[in-house]
Amino acid sequence: MNIDNYLESQYREIYPHLNIEYIDLYKCFELQKLQEIFATIHHLCVENYKLMNQRLPTGKFGDHFWAEPSRKLILAINTALGMQRTLKNTEYAFEIDDYYREVFVKSEEFLSASHGSQIPPNMKKIEIYYTMPIMLPTNATKINSGILEKKVALKLIGEGSYAQVFSFFDDYYKRKYVLKRAKKNLREKEIKRFKQEFYEMNSLSSPYIVEVYRYEDDTNEYIMEYMDCTLDKYIEKNNASLTNNDRKLIVNQILRAFKYIHSKKLLHRDISPKNILLKKYDDVNVIKVSDFGLVKVQDSHLTTINTEFKGCFNDPSLVTEGFQSYGILHETFALTRLVYFVMSGKTRMDNIKDVNLSSFVKKGLSANLSERYQNVDEIISAVRVL
């Protein structure tokens, strides 16, 4: 089924009753047409359940309900329930408020499109929602936007072992943000690591570190700034057109980021092009480091023996040495590989034709740890001749 065509058909069906009085309750949905459909469903429910309430509560014999409002409620209910089923596994998926789902199911049992409806005995008055939405995004979160708390729709943009990553639009600030949410099946130790990632990033203050804003303990999620793409996607898309100067501008930002991180006595330990993000401005591309879930304080022994080996650019010797042995020389190893990736657009390091780049890689990846770059400053100096 073509979802866009389906939404258009639902919009046209409900259009004769179009009413956007309650559209502010549905601003959490990005699609304007969806907002208008839901606002109209909401309006039909308010106006016609108000009329039904004139006959409620019923006694032991029930009561009659007029034909015209019955037909309008049937339209609203059928549209809401039908759209929920059809859109279930799409980006437009939504839920129906628990109370109103019960109301809709109960109403389906007695509403009739002709000659009016027979309201069943002992039916209570319907609660009318004036300030609360009936339809809710399946993926949603509450945010403080301006002076108001409201729900916003979330769009899934990524998923890893521990968390899902969503984007959302805040119409108060007119900006996109990202929400990172821990998966529900995580162990306590994994939740602790997820929280650590937030608090480490929140403690850092650098233009080259992704900003994070708030941690919600109830849902184990936090909000962070929106970035346009990952470094690997950017290089993949632009590799043919990037000049040597373009590449060095990217590299220098990355190295400034890690010089700052190391100045705070931290090791990132999960260096890869997927964890370096890029934000595009009119006149410059800004690089920022993310994913601090494996961060470690230098010279500490807090890493457990079974900490997962991650980071596609990590020193393979860590597999046998154990990830708990990760130190600054393993970090410079990964940074050497990252610099090579940016400068060449490649991950394979065989047959490097550029003499300076070949020498740079040979030193940074040396099996003899004493021959490697001992810190980021040494890498910065070496990059100048590339």
Give a verbal description of the structure:
With 386 residues, the protein is α+β, with helices and mostly antiparallel strands. The chain folds into three domains: 135 residues; 86 residues, 2-Layer Sandwich (Phosphorylase Kinase, domain 1), CATH 3.30.200.20; 155 residues, Transferase(Phosphotransferase), domain 1, CATH 1.10.510.10. 38% of the residues lie in helices and 18% in strands. Strands 7-8-9-11-10 form a five-stranded antiparallel sheet, with helices on one face. Helix 1 packs parallel to helix 2 and helix 7 packs antiparallel against helix 11. The longest helix has 22 residues. The two termini are 53 Å apart.
Explain the layout of strands and helices.
Elements: H1 3-14, H2 32-53, E1 63-65, H3 67-86, E2 94-96, H4 98-108, E3 117-119, E4 135-137, E5 140-145, E6 148-153, E7 155-159, E8 163-170, E9 175-182, H5 188-203, E10 212-216, E11 221-225, E12 229-230, H6 231-238, H7 244-263, E13 266-267, E14 276-280, E15 285-289, E16 296-297, H8 318-321, H9 328-344, H10 355-364, H11 376-383
Antiparallel strand pairs: 1-3, 2-4, 5-6, 7-8, 8-9, 9-11, 10-11, 12-14, 13-16, 14-15
Helix pairs in contact: 1-2, 2-3, 7-9, 7-11, 9-10
Which short descriptors sum up this protein?
Transferase(Phosphotransferase), domain 1, 5-stranded antiparallel sheet, single chain, 386 residues, alpha+beta, Phosphorylase Kinase, domain 1, 3-stranded antiparallel sheet, elongated, 3 domains
Helical element count? Answer: 11
Spatially, the strands of the biggest sheet line up as 7-8-9-11-10
Report the structural category: alpha+beta
- CATH architecture group name of the largest domain: Orthogonal Bundle
CA-atom Rg in angstroms: 28 Å
Structurally, how many domains make up the residues?
Answer: 3
- Give the helix proportion (percent range): 25-40%
**What is the overall silhouette?**
elongated
Strand content: 15-25%
What is the top-level CATH class of the largest domain? Answer: Mainly Alpha
Topology as a string of helices (H) and strands (E): HHEHEHEEEEEEEHEEEHHEEEEHHHH
